[in-house]
């Protein structure tokens, strides 16, 4: 951040969204910080009906695409401080699962694993560029985590 008002997240609501309301500004592991904030927020979001959860994911994904594109124009390609993609991906991993600590921690660990390792097609989606590329790879990572959580839920239910 160069410190000018134009690039300050506090003065631009799009940048504030891009940095996950400040969680992406931590000096170490901003993606994990964004995921932790999203996981904690799921304690509330997860109590809502699943269609409301899906609507929240779609809304954050759409607005996040715009916010990430704006952030890239100011800070360069896929800046680490942009974590709105982690929020959307983390919520996708957890959608419609009980908002309990066990599911949330499992979802957090799985999402971070796939977000960091970027199995196919995550890396390819990242290359889409712009805000879409920023968001798409994390949504794919969230999808992978979700699949494993759904299998676990199925096995757990017997």
Give a verbal description of the structure.
With 158 residues, the chain is an all-alpha fold. It has one domain. The chain contains seven helices and no strands. Helix 3 packs antiparallel against helix 7 (130-157). The longest helix is centred in the last third of the chain and has 28 residues, at 130-157. 42% of the residues are buried.
Between the first and last Cα atoms, what is the distance in angstroms?
51 Å
Low-pLDDT parts are: 1-5
Class inferred from helices and paired strands: mainly alpha
Instruction: Tell me how many strands there are.
Output: 0
Q: What is the helix/strand order?
A: HHHHHHH
- What composes the largest sheet? none
DSSP summary: helix tally = 7
Beta percentage is under 5%
How many individual domains? 1
Radius of gyration: 15 Å
Assembly type of the chains comes to: single chain
Shape: globular
Q: Helix share of residues?
A: 55-70%
Mean pLDDT over the residues: 93
List keywords for this structure.
7 helices, mainly alpha, disordered N terminus
Give the topology.
Elements (H helix, E strand, L loop, with lengths): L12 H6 L11 H16 L4 H26 L8 H11 L6 H17 L4 H5 L3 H28 L1
Give a quick summary of the entry.
By secondary structure, this protein is an all-alpha fold. It has helices at 13-18, 30-45, 50-75, 84-94, 101-117, 122-126, 130-157. It is built from 7 helices and no strands.
